[in-house]
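User: Can you help me understand a structure? I only have the sequence.
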Amino acid sequence: MESYLVISALGTDRPGLVEALSETIVESGCNINESRMAVLGGEFAVIMLLSGNWNSVAKIEQALPNLEEKLQLKIHGKRTEPRTSTDHLIPYAVEVVCLDHSGIVCDIADFFYRRSINIEDVYSSTYPAPHTGARMFTLHMTVGIPSDTAIAALRGEFMDFCDDRNLDAMLAPVK
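Assistant: Let's start by predicting it. Here is the structure, written out as C-alpha cells:
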C-alpha cells in the first residue's frame, strides 16, 4: 500500500537545490508525483507530493532535518492521503490581465468561493507594460467547476464581475 507525503521547502535560491532534493527523494525510494517550484524574489520555493511504501516515506521523513540543515532551507513534511475523486469536476482555466493594484487575487478567490468552486492552481506575476511601463498584473488559475453548474450563467457572472473591476478576463475549459 502506498503512503503519501507532501513536503514544502523555502530558502535562498541557488543552483543545485532541485538536484539535491530530488536525489534525496530517489535515494529514499520515493517518487515525486506532483511538484510546483518557483523563484520568488531571491527565494526558492517548492511543494511536492511524494509517494512510496511506508518504509520509504518514513525514510524521507527522517532525512528531512539533515537535508534542511545541509541545504539551508526551511522544510516541512506532512503525511496525506490520495485525493478523493474529482470526476464530478470540470477543469476550467481563468486568465486575468489588468493594471496592478491590491486585492485582485482576493476578489477573484472570493468570487469562486461564494459559488463553492475550488481553486486548484494559481500563478500570478507582474510586469511593466510595453511603451508606458505601467505595472501590469497577470493571473492564471485552474478551478474545478461542478458538472451540474450552468457554465454559460457562471461565465456571464464572471465576465460582469471582471468588467466591474476593469479586469480583462477569460474563463474557458482546460484542453
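Now, to help you interpret it: The chain has a mean pLDDT of 95. The CA atoms of residues 10 and 74 lie 5 Å apart. Let me know which part you'd like to focus on.
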